Amino acid sequence: MSMRALCSVARAGALILAVANLTVPDAVIHAKWFKLGLILDSAHHYYAAQT
Description:
Layout: H1 3-23, H2 26-50
Keywords: Signal
Signal peptide: 1-20
């Protein structure tokens, strides 16, 4: 993949995220990130306990 194509994909992704942030309520976004954080946190604790 060329650098120019990569840049345009990144720009499109940023635009989509910006639009999503404007249209989706903050509470929904926070809930999703909170859930993701909990999942990552529990996975981290699980792997730490294994070693």
